[in-house]
Specification:
- The complex is a heterodimer of chains A (114) and B (739).
- With 114 residues, chain A is mainly β.
- Chain A is 7% helix and 56% strand.
- Chain A contains one helix and five strands, in the order βββαββ.
- Chain A is globular, with a radius of gyration of 16 Å.
- In chain A, 18% of the residues are buried.
- Chain B has 739 residues and is α/β, with parallel strands linked by helices.
- Chain B folds into five domains: 105 residues, GIY-YIG endonuclease, CATH 3.40.1440; 68 residues, no CATH class; 182 residues, P-loop containing nucleotide triphosphate hydrolases (Rossmann fold); 182 residues, Rossmann fold (3-Layer(aba) Sandwich); 90 residues, Alpha-Beta Plaits (2-Layer Sandwich), CATH 3.30.70.
- A seven-stranded parallel sheet of chain B has the order 11-12-10-13-14-9-15, with helices on both faces. A six-stranded parallel sheet of chain B has the order 16-28-27-19-26-25, sandwiched between helices.
- Chain B is globular and about 80 Å long.
- Classes of the chains: A mainly beta (114), B alpha/beta (739).
- The interface between A and B is medium-sized, with 13 and 20 residues.
């Protein structure tokens, strides 16, 4: 039995599509899209503002999500909600992948555009 | 006294005959072995086979039941076939009812009268059909009808429906359409004696080279007595022409010829050549026929109307009025060994039948079985070599391509792809051989490692992407491809490994502008689809041919100049001690498809084991040297043909029971087994198959007689022991596969 309820693995993260999005079709005919999300934000830690930067792989599976992802231009800004899981079953390797449940394109308000 | 006792082979799995009283009110003077008898058996009525009449019975005569009816006036099988079956039943230790039943066409087994055979009617074009061929616009929209009508226009004496099969995809439907329009009609076939002489056409008699002439002269000088000839001829060396000349010589003496071939469907060219060159009707016997067609062909052979009988494995039991020669083409082919029920080897039985009939037996192959090579080395068989290709064409060169540390694109290395481009640029054809059908042998979950295991077997289910199904190649079970991993729920399921379907997909991406043909059991399932595919290949519509061992047999592809063996490794290290022999035979058979006189062929073998000693010998010195080296290995390991084996197999739904049966069988064997080695019981290499657990006990002896003396006594004890009914068991004498 899983030790934690589904709600205890939920991540919302926004960022830009880095590189291209690859889509393949599983043998059962389910589209599987995969792209890298480049995240950059300002955060507060120990009472001090700081930057947060990361890159994470996003998997978007199924017709609906694949259609959304397929229409995104490269460099598009998106907000992804989903859960985290390990990328493969190799022992000792714990790279994470964000499995998307929802993806929306957003307008980024950067300091330069103000 | 009630008269003689009838000893009858009743189709049942019991290792014994059954005694009956003659049917009341039947004249008993002409009772002979070989008659069919309808008898009561339990609560059923079955058709049995009279083996002998006897004055006595070991049973209480009062308890015997009378037979119901004698079905034949004269024996259905000639004495020589009866003798062959009696021999086979003793040698293979198989229930007699089953042995005798397997020699008869289904309809005769069911009690159908053995009527005089009729030649199948012929089809002929009508005058209206000829007119339509010239002016009808309808035909432009019916290409199949036009093709068939055009073919019929060229057959002055008409054509039987059997010969029309390869012309169009569905000849029966097309013929009906032509018939409905009044463009084609059926006429009675000409009587056999009045049959037109064969006409020269696509396959004229060829000028013989010295080796062919010598082989023919040698056999022709021995047509009156038993002698086995091993005709070892490289592919393209004109073995078929040798067969044809020998058959002509036999026919000239008023005798018949029996020719065995591995699979009729794969040898349309051989049949076409036989039809064109040899007079009179040809009886063709194979499993693709309807029961009625099969019976008719069988009766034509029995009546002697058909002078030449061509058939697959079971045709070795075909009745002949005046047998003159037995020919086994591709004698190494595993399909000559029946793999279930009555497990006989048709090539071995051909040798016995030839001996009993005192006529010559010709075993032909480019890559003879090691057993046959061994017999030739011991001079039990006379070796006839055809070392050169007809027309002086060079044999294809064979290169080993080391693919270790090479990036592989769906199993294809860069160097192989580059060579393919080279040959394709010269407008030649390329053939890729991969003995694995389907898209991928395994479906794998990328996240948790789950594999697509079969529910019933210790095996993985093969992914067939076009059908979107997982299919077990061992038990036939199939199911839709899983949407998500049944263990972890991930959708990221991936195909692992390559099958022909995947190779085809990859090559379509690599060579988008070229026609690509795939030839395996999946792509040729529909009747006629193989013929269509072959025709398209010969027309040059396809430039790349991908196939399983189906491609290796019988066909000639004159424009193929490059053959790629995609994966030689599976054969080099198989579980079976015969796997390297099989691989060598397959490699050379596939290689033989490449190149013809003016275009030398080239073969590339991809392997991770470029230094495998037998592979090296095969490539650098050829098959005879390979056979010698492989035989030396067998001798050192005391394996067949230097030992003689039998395999007792058992299977049961419960894993313990099969082993328990074999342990008991072994206990029965131990006191008898002098000079016989017993190995096991051990689980079969694939223990669970189709939901049943399988185990086996291997018996091995250096002397055949010792093994058979032992088997006679041992099998009688096993039968007498009335073993566990939940266990299904069988004895395989001279097993070809150890699982």
């Amino acid at each position: 039995m899983p030790a934690a309820p589904a709600a205890d693995n939920c991540l919302v993260i926004a960022g830009q599509l880095a590189g291209t999005c690859e889509t393949r079709i599983s043998p059962a005919g389910i589209p599987i899209s995969r792209f890298l999300l480049e995240h950059h934000s300002g955060q507060t830690e120990a009472g001090t503002p700081r930057e947060a930067r990361c890159r994470i792989a996003v998997m978007a599976c199924g017709e609906g999500l694949s259609r959304v992802v397929g229409q995104l231009p490269s460099g598009a800004a998106v907000r992804v909600r989903g859960f985290l899981s390990r990328a493969n079953h190799r022992a000792g390797e714990y790279r994470l992948v964000l499995h998307a449940a929802h993806i929306e394109q957003i307008v980024v308000v950067t300091p330069e555009s103000l | 006294m009630t008269g003689p006792i009838l000893r009858i082979a009743v189709p049942s799995p019991l290792y014994r005959t059954f005694d009956y009283l003659p049917p009341p009110s039947r004249d008993l003077t002409d009772l002979q072995p070989g008659l069919r008898v309808r008898v009561p058996f339990g609560r059923r009525q079955v058709v049995g086979f009279l083996l002998e009449t006897s004055a006595s019975t070991t049973l209480d005569p009062a308890a015997l039941r009378p037979a119901l009816e004698i079905l034949d006036r004269e024996p259905l099988l000639p004495a020589d076939v009866l003798a062959l079956l009696q021999w086979a039943r003793r040698y293979y230790h198989h229930p007699p009812g089953d042995v005798f039943a397997s020699a008869l066409p289904v309809l005769l087994r069911q009690g159908e009268p053995a009527a005089t055979p009729t030649l199948p009617p012929a089809w002929r074009i009508t005058p209206a059909g000829r007119a339509a061929l010239v002016e009808s616009v309808v035909l432009h929209r019916a290409p199949a009808q036009r093709l068939l009508l055009d073919h019929l226009a060229g057959c002055a004496a008409g054509a039987s429906s059997e010969t029309l099969r390869p012309v169009v995809r569905d000849s029966a439907v097309t013929l009906r359409a032509l018939h409905a329009k009044g463009w084609a009609e059926q006429v009675a076939a000409p009587a056999a004696d009045a049959a037109p002489p064969p006409r020269p056409g696509r396959y004229p008699p060829l000028v013989l080279n010295d080796a062919q002439a010598e082989a023919i002269a040698t056999v022709a000088a021995a047509l009156e007595r038993f002698q086995v000839f091993l005709l070892e001829g490289v592919t393209g060396s004109g073995k078929t022409e040798v067969y044809l000349r020998l058959i002509e010589a036999v026919l000239a003496r008023g005798r018949q010829a029996l020719v065995l071939t591995p699979e009729i469907g794969l040898t349309p060219q051989l049949l076409a050549r036989f039809r064109e060159r040899l007079p009179g009707p040809l009886a063709v016997l194979h499993s693709g026929l309807s029961d009625r067609e099969r019976l008719n062909a069988w009766l034509l052979a029995r009546a002697g109307t058909a002078k030449v009988v061509v058939g697959t494995r079971s045709a070795i039991f075909a009745p002949l009025r005046a047998p003159g020669i037995l020919i086994v083409d591709e004698e190494h082919d595993p399909s000559y060994k029946q793999q279930d029920g009555f497990r006989y080897h048709a090539r071995d039985l051909a040798v016995i039948r030839g001996q009993q009939l005192d006529i010559p037996v010709v075993l032909g192959s480019a890559t003879p079985a090691l057993e046959s090579v061994h017999n030739a080395q011991r001079e039990r068989y006379r070796l006839l070599r055809l070392p050169e290709r007809v027309g002086g064409g060079a044999e294809p060169s064979i290169d080993i391509l080391d693919v270790r540390r090479q990036p592989l694109i769906e199993g294809l290395s860069r160097p192989l792809l580059e060579r393919m481009r080279l040959h394709l640029a010269r407008n030649e054809q390329v053939l890729l051989f991969l003995n694995r059908r389907g898209f991928a042998p395994i479906l794998l979950c990328h996240e948790c490692g789950w594999l697509s295991a079969c529910r019933h077997c210790d095996a993985r289910m093969t992914l067939h992407l076009r059908q979107r199904r997982l299919i077990c190649h061992h038990c036939g079970d199939s199911r839709p491809v899983d949407r998500v991993c049944p263990v972890c729920g991930s959708v990221d399921l991936r195909p692992l490994g390559q099958g022909t379907e995947r190779l085809e997909t990859a090559l379509r991406q690599e060579f988008p502008d070229l026609g690509i043909a795939r030839m395996d059991r999946d792509s040729t399932r529909r009747r006629g689809s193989l013929e269509t595919l072959l025709a398209d290949i010969h027309n040059g519509d396809h430039r790349i041919l991908i196939g399983t061992q189906m491609l290796a047999k019988g066909h000639h592809f004159p424009d193929v100049t490059l053959v790629g063996i995609v994966d030689a490794d599976q054969g080099l290290y198989g579980v079976d001690f015969r796997s390297s022999e099989r691989m060598a035979q397959l490699i050379l058979q596939v290689a033989g498809r490449a190149g013809r006189a003016e275009k030398p062929g080239n073969v590339i073998i991809q392997t991770h084991h470029p230094d495998h000693p037998l592979l090296r010998v095969l490539v650098s010195q050829g098959y005879p040297a390979f056979a010698t080296a492989a035989l030396a290995e067998r001798q050192a390991a005391l394996l067949p043909p230097f030992a003689h084996q039998a395999l007792l197999r058992a299977e049961a739904a419960d894993p313990e029971r099969a082993t328990a049966f074999l342990t008991a069988a072994r206990a029965l064997a131990d006191p008898l087994a002098d000079g016989v080695e017993l190995l096991g019981p051990a689980p079969a290499p694939m223990e669970r198959r189709a939901g049943r657990y399988r185990a086996q006990l291997l018996l091995q002896a250096t002397h055949r007689q010792v093994l058979h003396r032992f088997l006679d006594r041992w099998t009688a004890r096993i039968w007498a022991r009335n073993a566990d009914r939940q266990v299904r068991w069988s004895l395989d004498v001279d097993p070809m596969e150890l699982y």
